[in-house]
Design brief:
Blueprint: H1 11-75, E1 79-84, E2 89-92, H2 94-100, H3 104-107, H4 112-116, H5 125-135, E3 139-147, E4 153-164, E5 170-179, H6 181-203, E6 207-212, E7 217-220, H7 224-228, H8 232-238, H9 249-264, E8 269-276, E9 282-289, E10 292-295, E11 298-307, H10 309-331, E12 335-340, E13 345-348, H11 350-355, H12 360-363, H13 368-371, H14 375-391, E14 395-403, E15 409-420, E16 427-435, H15 437-446, E17 463-469, E18 474-477, H16 479-485, H17 489-492, H18 497-504, H19 509-521, E19 523-532, E20 535-547, E21 553-562, H20 564-582, E22 588-590, E23 596-599, H21 601-607, H22 611-614
Antiparallel strand pairs: 1-2, 1-5, 3-4, 4-5, 6-7, 6-11, 8-9, 9-11, 10-11, 12-13, 12-16, 14-15, 15-16, 17-18, 17-21, 19-20, 20-21, 22-23
Amino acid sequence: MNKTNNNNMPDDLKNIIAQLENSEQQLVALNQQLEASNQQLSATEQQLRAYNQQLVASEITLKREKQFSESLLETANTIIVTLDVDANIRLFNKFAEELTGYKKEEVLEKNWFEVFIPKNDDSVIPKVFSDILMDMPDASSHSNSILIKDGSEKLISWENTIIKNDSGEIKGILSIGNDITERKKAEVALRESEEKFRSLVTSIPDVVWTTDINGNTVYISENIKDVYGFTSEEIYEGGSSLFLDRIHPEDLEGVGNAYKNLFLENIEFNIEYRIQCKDGRWIWLRDRAISTYAKDGIQYADGIFTDITDRKKVEESIKQSASKLRQIIDLVPHFIYVKDEDGKDLIVNKAVADAYGKTVEEITGKHDMNVTSDNENAKKYIKDDLEVINSGKLKFIPEEQITDSKGNIRLLQTTKIPFKTAKNEKRAILGISIDITESKKAEEALSEKTLMLDNILMSSVDMSIATTDLDFRITYFNPIAETFFGYSAQEVIGKTVQEIHVMENVENERLEKAIALVHRNGEYKYFVEQKTKDGIRYLESRVSGIYDSDNIIVGYALFSSNITNRKKAEDDIQKLSTAVHQSPSVIAITNLKGNLEYVNPKFTELTGYTIEEAKGLNPRVL
């Protein structure tokens, strides 16, 4: 609007123009306000659009989280259930279905206790549930059995969490459960196993132990006190000083090496050693452990040891007996040997070894074909051995020959007796051969016949020999035995000594006593008086064991000698001694040098010299 000169205008027109101008200004201001409102609306629209985008993003996130939660719920290997305040089931996951056999459709909205709690537990478990709701703890745990669809029960360990709304009102409970049925069974089995182990440990005489790689004892059974004198508590407190430090110095290195090999090389620990008890005694232990194991980064071994002191004493006694037996058979000039059914020499004495120019060790374990170059006779020896083994009967060979290491032919008279080795029940023969080479030469020179020797280990014709097996069944009875005891070999071989005792009215307790002494002392000696038509006959008898290669008794032998003449001579000497001692005359005996060896009481009475004072003096000096 163009500006006009208002001075010439009427007042009314001026007012109208003024109002128009004011309206125009208001319109401009309103237009400005509209533009500002449009700008605000545009900004608000942008904000709404951004907010909408956020809502969409949040919805996607919530959907994903829901899917994840549902996936986690359905794939979890634990029972997940939710109950409302009335214990009605609101949630029942897939694992719960698999474990119980129920589909969720079968249990949802049903009371948990009515469906799953065994009747014998319904007075207890609801109270637990009620307590949880009443006390409103953040979390709780318990375990109980549930009844599954097939009627069996499962033991479940529960972790419970109270569900509350925003105002803190309790709406129910979330329970996550793990099936611990098998674990509980395993725990019961382990407990029973431990109880059996403790019962076993307390009932056996052996001592059970557990130590670590450094030799520290972490367990040792209480019977250690009975064996070692120290209590288990003393062993724990004393450490190695009460065990390792008390091992015999000669055995300590061997024990230490064996213990190291157990842990480092996995070599079985099995060793015998001496250890000093609390009271100062030395005992023998056999200690053994098979393997090691690790626990909390430390290696351990479980083992057991046995007090073998008594066994060691017996072994030493047997060893000494075997040594004596070896000395005896090596002193015997006759051939003594034991061979198994394979023809191997298990035992030979020195006489056999000397004949073949070898040592006892070189022959032991060898076959006859490897000992002698005379293969033809070696085959005959084996044939005879097998005949005795297979028949089970003694064989007497009047004459056989061997070729010794110098090429000389030697004639032997041999007796072979069957028996079995105690160790493996392997069949064998005991052979005794007497060298009759010189006797045969004498026979040829004199053209006279001599009787064949007919007994084993016979050093004179006055010795009776009889042998038995471990059941006391007579296996050999030589001709002299026939003379002494009045039975033929045919009558007694195969019979037991007990049967002969019954025939002779002899108490079998004597046999038991004799055998006990043989096992304890190696032999049993006794004297027998026999009434014969020619008067009293005196026999000196000895019972000893027959041993195999392992020094185990496999039979018994009875040796009896006629000492009647010796007994009569001893009686005559005793009578003469008494007569000299009681003589009223002076009697003195000197040696070849003329010095006194004996004076009787009459001499002492006349001279005042006792026998001790006179002995060694010259009568002329007196």
